[in-house]
Amino acid sequence: MKKLFIPFLLLFVLILSACGNNEKANENKEDKSKSETVTYQSETGPVKIPANPKRIIALSNGPNVLALDGNIVGIDQWTNMNPLFKDKLKGVEVVSEDNLEKIIELEPDLIIAGSEMKNIKKLNEIAPTVVFTWGKLDYLSQQVEIGKLLNKEKEAKDWVNDFKERANSAGEKIRAKIGEDATVSVIENDAKEFYVFGNNFARGTEILYQAMNLKMPEKVKEKALKPGVYTLSSEVLPEYTGDYIIFSKNPDVENSFVGTETWKNIPAVKNGHIFEINSKASTYSDPITLDHLLEFFEKSFLNS
Questions:
Q1: 131: domain range?
Q2: % the chain with pLDDT above 70
Q3: Where is the domain boundary, 153, 187, 214?
Q4: I need a surface site. Which of 27, 79, 148, 155 has the fewest CB within 10 A?
C-alpha cells in the first residue's frame, strides 16, 4: 500500500508545483504588461507611454478614444455634453487642463491634449502627455493615429477600410437617385448669424463631400472650402443653399427664421429637400459620429 501511495504523493507534489509556477508566470506576465512602455512618435517628438494605457484622460480626441473602447477616466466638457457618448461616459469625470488637482486625483497613465492648451508642461509632470493639433491630420488618419497610441492600430485601420467602403457605396446610391450634379449645403446658425461649411468641419461634411463625393454649390466652394466655415447673414443665405440642405440644428438656439419668407422660398425647402441633424451630436469626426451620420444620410436621401 505504501509503495502505491508514494508515486501518488509525488504526482500530487508535481501538480502543485506546476500550478504554483503557472500562477507566478501569470503574475509576472501581468506585472510586465502593467510596467511595459513603448515609445510613441508624437508630433512634438518621442513620448514614452504605457504599451496598454489603462487610465486615460482625454482633454482632446476623446471621441476617437471612445470608438476604440479606451478606458477614459477624465473627459473634456464638450465631449461630455454630446448625446452620442452619454452611455459610454457614465461615471467619467469632467476635467479641464486647468483642473490639475482633479487630474492628479484620477491617477492617469496617459493624457491626450490639444496643442493649443497652455498647461502641457504641467500635464507632462503628472503623466505622459501626447499632443495633437486639430486639423493637422485628416479625419481618417486621426483615427489610425489614436489606434497607434492605444496599441489598437489594426482595429482602427479595419474601421477605416470598412467605413470607406460603406460610404462609397452609399454615395453611389445617393448620386444615382438625386443626380450627379445635385448640390448639397451644410448650414448652422446661432442667435445672430448663419454658417455654411466646407468639406472638413464635422457636421457630416467629411462624409458628404469626401467619402460620398457629393457636390457643394459653387458659392460655398468659393467661400467655405479653404477656411472650412464661412459666416453669412440670413439675407444672403439663399445664395449658398444647394439642391439639398443639411441643417445642423442646435436645440438650444432660437430658430424663428424658419418662419420667414426668405427661408420658405429657398428651393430646397420648398421641395422638402432639407434634413435636420442635431448639432450637439455632429461636431466631431470620430467613428461613432461618422457611423451615426452615415446611416442618417443614407436613409434621408434615399427615402426622400
A1: 37-153
A2: 88
A3: 153
A4: 27
The pLDDT, as a whole number, for residue 2 is 43
Q: Are 288 and 63 in contact (CB under 8 A)?
A: yes
Distance CA 79, CA 63 (A): 7
User: Which position has the grid cell 465631449?
Assistant: 79
Q: Which residue has the cell 435636420?
A: 276
Buried b (16+ CB within 10 A) or exposed e, 96-133: ebebeeebeebebbbbbbeeebebbeebeebbbbbbbe
Looking at residues 107-125, what average pLDDT do you find?
Answer: 97
Grid coordinates given for 122:
504641467
User: Of the residues 103, 135, 153, which one is the last residue of a structural domain?
Assistant: 153
CATH assignment of the domain containing 55: 3.40.50.1980
Can you read off the three cell numbers belonging to residue 256? 424663428
What is the pLDDT at residue 5? 46
DSSP 258: G
